[in-house]
Amino acid sequence: MIYKKTFGMPEKFVPTAYAPAPKAKVLEMPASLAEKFTFSVGRRGVKLTFPLGPDTAIYGFGLQLKELNHRGNKISLRCNADPNSRTGDSHAPVPFFVTNEGWGMYVDTARSAVFYCGSELNRGLHASDFEAYAESEFVDNTRDLYADKTHENTALTVEVPLAEGVDVYYFTGERIVDLVAQYNLFSGGGCLPPDWGLGNFYRCCGRFNEDEVLEMAESIRAQRIPCDVLGLEPGWQTRVYSCSYVWSEKFRNHKALLGRLKEMGFKVNLWEHFFVHPTAPVFDALLPYSADYYVWHGLVPDLSLPEAQEIYAAHQHTLVEEGVYGFKVDECDGSDFTGGWSYPDCAVFPSGMDGEQFHHLAGALGAQTLMKAMGDRPTYSEIRAMGALAASYPFVLYSDLYDFNDYLTGVVNAGFSGLLWSPEVRQCASRSDLVRRIQLVAFSAQSLINAWNYDHQPWLDFDAADEVREMFETRMRLVPYLRRAFKRYRDTGVPPVRSLVCDYPEAQHIEDEYIFGDMIVAPIAPERHGREVWLPAGEWVGYFDGKTYAGGLHAVETEKIPVYYRRGEKPEEGRITQFTE
Questions:
Q1: What are phi and psi of 241, to 5 degrees?
Q2: Where in the chain is the domain with CATH 2.60.40.1760?
Q3: Residue limits of CATH 2.60.40.1180 in the chain
Q4: Sign of CA dihedral 399, 403, 406, 408
Q5: 176 neighbors 100 (Cβ within 8 angstroms)
Q6: Distances (CA, A) of 400 to 18, 406, 413, 425
Q7: pLDDT at residue 141 above 80?
Q8: Span 420-477, pLDDT tens digits
Q9: Which CATH superfamily is domain 491-566 in?
Q10: Can you spell out the DSSP letters for 141-169?
Q11: Which residues contact 460 (CB under 8 A, 6 or more apart)?
């Protein structure tokens, strides 16, 4: 069930104002539940408190790369391209979380809200009321004290800056996966990518010209490496910081190139961002619909306005008509913490929203705009920012960070918040680093090698073409299985990739395994040859070794990636072939 309660006077510019129509019914919050909230408005904005149990675990808040359970943490949902701690910074912050106690909460705000996930409340007790806390019960070790996140009289506290009110949506369900599924249906249902989008992507070197792109495509085909999408990085444009959206002299014959790549079975994806260079054909038309700040001498169009969306989308549609099947949207996370290159939070947009709100809405608004540009052509694209209520957009998140464990944590966490995430493969320090990353990416929402800085395929450095071919062939065979998982995502809201705890409450402390469709995946880190794997109760079959495993812990040594399916539920497989559409 989903219940809504309005506290005070909510702001105008919130995610629900721009989201697709919900596929889930929303009821008025009953008084017995609403009275558990404490609401006030002060100098800092909205303050909400809600009681937490001593053992409440909290998951979600968007793409979080550092931790699974946020109980006891202060989560500040700031847009930040390079989050380096567990404080909540993210280039896909989402004010939605779920718990292990059958409830979750979405706070409808485009502000940098702060969630205190377990603070002790002052109940006005006297000293005599604390007699139950004998001196011996208090720890002397400071480290143990900090680690203790379970207290009585604790609450979740939410701060929404500048606001005078907020809408809160309260979700109930038997399991975490039920809560997440309802949130995704509330968001409009999950996306359903085209089959070719479920295959393999390769992004070419940003310095390439059209001849070098074609040579790379021919090399990939000659090596029999299954690949469905070729991405062109910034160099396809005449200007890139900001963007002109005009083909450069290096791609003088780009129409012929696009035609040849299509004949070879490749779809083409173009890199861009939403900051508009003065030489862009749409600059003058977008000028009245842009913010009061430039970024890299370019306009920041207010894509919340239908006029701005139509102007931008119309030009991008000309690229689609030439044969483009998707876009990689960079820099829209707008971090001010890695150089201060973006527009400030106090920026003013023609719609009336400020820069803080636009930072939180830019990814979803940009995705909507490019979906208009695609017209009837389906896409499965990449984007570096997203936010609340984004499940229906066929865009996969990526990051400029590159730690293997962070990337794995992103795979585990993204499914809590209606997000898709690719732990893309870029530079690699060793053969093991390459192989383990390829294994991880092949069992993620998008199988992508981003060779933007390589004038050759990264696997050639380590003579690892056979390993890459094997994993990419595995990905291709699993496309029918993935298609079924994404159809379920669209129809029921169940994420195709999600944490173990979503389906198995007893897996609360398993942070380095996840569910892919319905299979369990336990990636092995680079330079390691094995790991401990936990499986739920029942009989499981190793996808690669065919062995039977009982529920429980297993010490696994393998050069493959450990993947398991329930006995009797062998994944549907298809032929290894390229997709024409």
A1: -130, 80
A2: 2-186
A3: 491-566
A4: positive
A5: yes
A6: 27, 11, 17, 11
A7: no
A8: 999 999 999 999 999 999 999 999 999 999 999 999 999 999 999 999 999 999 999 9
A9: Golgi alpha-mannosidase II (2.60.40.1180)
A10: -HHHHHH----SSEEEEEEETT-EEEEEE
A11: none
Give all strands of the β-sheet with 563-566 in edge-to-edge order.
Answer: 497-499, 514-516, 519-521, 563-566, 530-542, 548-557
CA torsion, ordered 34, 36, 41, 45, to nearest 10 deg? -100
- Max alpha carbon distance in the chain (Å)? 84
Q: How far apart are CA 471 and CA 401, in angstroms?
A: 23
CA 266-323-426 angle, to 5 degrees, is 45
3-state SS string over 508-542?
A: CCCCCCEEECCEEECCCCCCCCEEEEEEEEEEEEE
The domain defined by 195-479 carries CATH number 3.55.50.30: no
What CATH topology corresponds to 2-186? Immunoglobulin-like (2.60.40)
DSSP string covering 210-231: HHHHHHHHHHHHHTT----EEE
For the question of whether the overall pTM of this predicted structure is more than 0.85, the answer is yes
- The one-letter amino acid code at 548 reads T
Instruction: For the chain, give percent helix, strand, coil, nearest 5.
Output: 30, 25, 45
Which pair of structure tokens corresponds to residue 61?
A: 């808040």
Q: For 157-205, how does the pLDDT look when each residue is reduced to its tens digit (9 = 90+)?
A: 999 999 999 999 999 999 999 999 999 999 999 999 999 999 999 999 9
Please state, in angstroms and rounded to a whole number, the distance separating the CA atoms of residues 22 and 24.
Answer: 5
Provide the pairing of β-strand 530-542 with 548-557: antiparallel
